[in-house]
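I am still getting used to backbone structure tokens and would like to learn alongside you. To get us started, please write out a protein record for me. Start from the sequence, derive the backbone structure tokens from it, and show both lines together. Once you have written the record down, we can walk along the chain together:
***
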Amino acid sequence: MRYFYGEYDGSEFPTPDKLFGFDQLMQFILEYGDHALKAIEQMLQDPKNEAQSELIEKLIKDGLLDKNGNGQIRLTPKAVGRMQRRALMEVFSNLRTGQREGHEKITTGAGGERIDGTKPYQFGDPVSELDLHQTIRNALSRHGLPQSSAGRPASIRFDEKDFVLHLHEGTTSCSTVVLLDMSGSMMRYSRFLSAKKVALAMQALVRSKFPQDSIDFVGFYSGANRIPEALLPLAMPKPVTIYDYQVRLKVPVDQLSIAPQHFTNLHMGLQLARRILRKRTSENKQIFIITDGQPTAHVEGNFVHLLFPPDTRSTVATLKEAILATREGCRISTFALIEDYWGMEWVGFVDQLTKLTKGVAFYTSSGELSSCIMESYLSGRKKKAYIA
């Protein structure tokens, strides 16, 4: 056994609660999902883990964890909210300084914060936003000082051109659906962990800064399903169960749950996103796609086709669905995770998708994902970005 000696810096040694606090527990749950909750249940049952058991019981008393009658541990809404806020702080601490925290739109009238500048009054504008000082100044400069006559007070003459209004930072609502790739390859390079943290941060951002916005999350794999807010921290990529070099499966939609789940059915994800956004009344609608590969599944009638290597039929079906979404007023942004440089030929699909939908493409790594998504969500800029 080897020993290494160093000078003690005087700092306090960490106590068990600091080594196994809620922040560490959050990271554990985000990384392992349901498996993490099962591990916590085993800690409670193991008499050797007395210190950890006490800390977990404290989290239960604090309302961050809940235990049902069968001893199963689950996250509480309070815990999910705290995880969202923590993720938001982590994401924004890494963003470049000077970025606006808001959807860019300048208009008149109530709603947003008042900003510098004025505009001429137009019929229908709210008179409550008149800049009285500038309006009076305009009237006096145009018509001169008021003249009083015997027995009558002086009056200022106003014309329509004299009236000006304050400018405001308008509030425009936005409905967003984030499509999270949950195929088997998303487990590599901590891709899905990064995507989940961004998802939690976006939830916290919408809730705190943009209450007029809506945001939904859809996981797509061999199928596609909405991810409820309470279950988002537990979501995980689907494990790979088939290792054949070629797969051609045709599965009825109603039997898809018993089929291999690790394929990439972006086609079905876009279908579900369109259905969600049709019910929203926001002025702006957008779809964010986070993926690390081209489609390997699509829907035809009542069947789902699972195809590997990727097949042109899946590509064409997915592109058609994306075009339908844009025709319904949805803006599409794609975040392509490209750590696997040896497999870069699949980004051709992203190029096609971006050109056909006149959307936005970000070619990035999981470590840069949060910056790309937050900048796109806040500014709404339409551009193609390559992140080195």
In short: The radius of gyration is 28 Å. The first strand starts at residue 65 and ends at 67. The CA atoms of residues 21 and 55 lie 8 Å apart. Residues 96-102, 104-111, 382-388 have pLDDT under 50 and may be disordered.
